[in-house]
Amino acid sequence: MRFEAGLSFFAVIGVLVCTDREGVSFLCLLACMLHEFGHLAVMLYEKRPPALIRLYGGGIHISGGSTSVPAVIAGCAVNLTLFAVFGLPPWESRTLRLFGVMNLPVALFNLLPIRELDGKLLLDKLLLSAFPAERAVRISELCERVTAALIIPAALFLVFTGKLNFSAIIFLFYLSAVEIFEKI
Q1: Which residue of 10, 33, 77, 149 is surrounded by the most CB atoms within 10 Å?
Q2: Among residues 16, 31, 22, 167, which one has the least CA distance to residue 94?
């Protein structure tokens, strides 16, 4: 198992250290890391460890290893469990509650049927079990395109209605750019 940490990951951490006065970014990073540890734990349990764990500006990516349904859903299961334990009860600690609440968007984001996210892997498995391979691929690509086309307008709507911070839009554009440039 190899481990890589790209310069873009440390650049993002540097920006977060300089701009995040409340420690929210670190709670989100912790939620993301625990998500990936969920995948990793199941992969190691199944004795099918990943070939590579890569930290880059767009997040953490595990390559190779088990792609069984339990391994794929383990990350979101960890986040949803942390949300239930820390985000739902009325904790007096704002930090604990915030950490719990941050796990919900991490889980939901990872369930999107886009690129290498968990939602895409699960959708592909479901479609391949229900349709011939060629048709399953076409349906999966259509779902990915529709989701991608809806994300930016939905985020803009949330920003302009005051339900989402404008920095989230910048972050979405940044993630898109990182994904594009990492593939080139």
Answers
A1: 77
A2: 22
